[in-house]
Amino acid sequence: MLTWLAKRRARLRERRSKQAAIDRALKSFRETRGAVPMGGHVLFHDPQRTIVRVMYLTDHIPPNRAWFSVSGDDEVRELSINDVAHLETPWR
Question: Which among 14, 18, 30, 62 is least buried, having the fewest CB atoms inside 10 angstroms?
Answer without folding.
Answer: 62
